[in-house]
Design brief:
It is a single chain. The protein is of the alpha+beta class. The chain has two domains: about 1-145 and about 245-355, 2-Layer Sandwich (BirA Bifunctional Protein, domain 2), CATH 3.30.930; about 180-230, no CATH class. Helix content is about 45%, strand content about 20%. The chain has a nine-stranded mixed beta sheet with strand order 1-5-6-12-11-10-7-9-8, with helices on both faces. Strand 10 (about 310-315) and strand 11 (about 325-330) form a beta hairpin. Helix 5 runs parallel beside helix 14 (about 270-285), helix 10 (about 190-205) packs across helix 11 and helix 13 packs antiparallel against helix 14 (about 270-285). The radius of gyration is 21 Å and the shape is globular.
Length: about 375
């Protein structure tokens, strides 16, 4: 781990150490229901829900927003254990992170983070990396250009980030074992506050504090999604064809850029800003030492966290079994989700030390 941190600190990524015990609400708000089952919870004397930190990005972003650095371009590194319950894997693992806040030169910041994280991995373990990347921002631009309802855009992003096919996402209308049509009808035209009030009333009448560990807000959000989905217009065949073509584009970065330009031109979609950023990033990745010969783009690639908004990636070390050793991406909306009154551009990466050095265990 010292070799990893040495590379980051030489690049002037200042070391920070977020508390191991964190307020749980930000992770639940941003990770949704699925992350609840993987967290280790406790409460403080006031009843506030706390958890062992499951990752570094949210704690480091919160630390940045309350620091004297807030509002200025700042780069941090961090290292230590993170805690998640994962089937067949240790609950405590070591992670090294790097986070870059406040830079408006988006393509350069993206390329620097991937290039520096890759350099750190090579310094610590040697060997070559195979990298795959996607672009949540480009996908969002495509979905917007196709004039898809916001609900379908959210459902597609979440489903694709989980590794589901577009066909699976589009075919999966919300279903429940019980008939909630009466509740859904009552919520039609209701905002989030009204939906939560209705759910609170129903749970109170029934004498129930929560359902399956879900809060009233989470239940209300699910019901509102079902209401919106019922009202959303279906996909047209032309929209579906364009989306399928985008998701099928994969391969060497420069070739992928050409294919994406061709798709936009043939479909009559203005994706020029997103594609200009895509191509600039590729050029800068090469300058930052990323080996483009072992780097591939995939239109269907995503990271399963809601806060990613742009460039996303993962890398594996050649000859090393197991999952990726390096993951990360851009998360420009996270700061505002954590209370910032202004947007803060940000990009970061995490290196899984236990995957990088299998069999060594987590040091005590």
């Amino acid at each position: 781990m010292s070799a990893l941190m040495s590379v980051l600190q030489q690049a002037r990524y200042a070391s920070v150490t977020p508390d191991i015990l964190q307020e749980a609400a930000p992770f639940l708000d941003l990770g949704g229901e699925e992350i609840r089952a993987s967290l280790f919870f406790t409460t403080d004397q006031t009843g506030r829900e706390l958890c062992l930190r499951p990752e570094f990005t949210i704690p480091v972003c919160r630390a940045y927003l309350t620091s004297a650095d807030a509002g200025t371009p700042t780069r941090y590194s961090c290292a230590g254990p993170v805690f998640r319950m994962r089937a067949g894997e240790p609950a405590e693992t070591l992670q090294v992170g790097l986070e870059s806040f406040g830079r408006t030169d988006t393509a350069a910041a993206d390329a620097e983070v991937l290039g520096l994280a890759s350099e750190a991995v090579r310094a610590a373990a040697g060997g070559s990396l195979t990298t795959i990347f996607g672009d949540a921002g480009l996908l969002a631009s495509l979905l917007d250009a196709l004039r898809l309802p916001a609900l379908w855009q959210r459902r597609l992003k979440r489903g694709l980030d989980k590794g589901e096919s577009a066909a699976t996402v589009l075919a999966a209308a919300p279903t429940t074992a019980a008939d909630h049509s009466g509740v859904l009808a009552a919520m039609a035209g209701t905002d989030a506050a009204g939906a939560r009030a209705l759910v609170d009333d129903l749970l109170s009448i029934a004498g129930i504090a929560s359902v399956g560990g879900r809060s009233a807000s989470e239940i209300a959000e699910r019901f509102l999604s079902q209401v919106a989905l019922r009202a959303a217009p279906p996909f047209g065949p032309e929209q579906r064809s364009i989306l399928d073509r985008y998701l099928a584009i994969a391969g060497e970065p420069d070739a992928a850029a050409l294919a994406l330009r061709a798709l936009a031109e043939e479909a009559g979609l203005d994706l020029s800003a997103a594609l200009d950023l895509f191509e600039a990033r590729i050029s800068l990745m090469a300058i930052e030492g990323v080996d483009l010969a072992t780097t591939r783009f995939s239109g269907a690639f995503g990271r399963n966290l809601d806060y990613y908004t742009g460039f996303v990636f993962e890398a594996r070390l050649a000859g090393l079994p197991g999952g990726p050793v390096l993951v990360g991406g851009r998360y420009d909306r996270l700061a505002q989700a954590l209370g910032s009154t202004v947007p803060v551009p940000a990009v970061g990466a995490a290196i899984w030390v236990d995957t990088l050095h299998p069999g060594q265990g987590t040091p005590r």
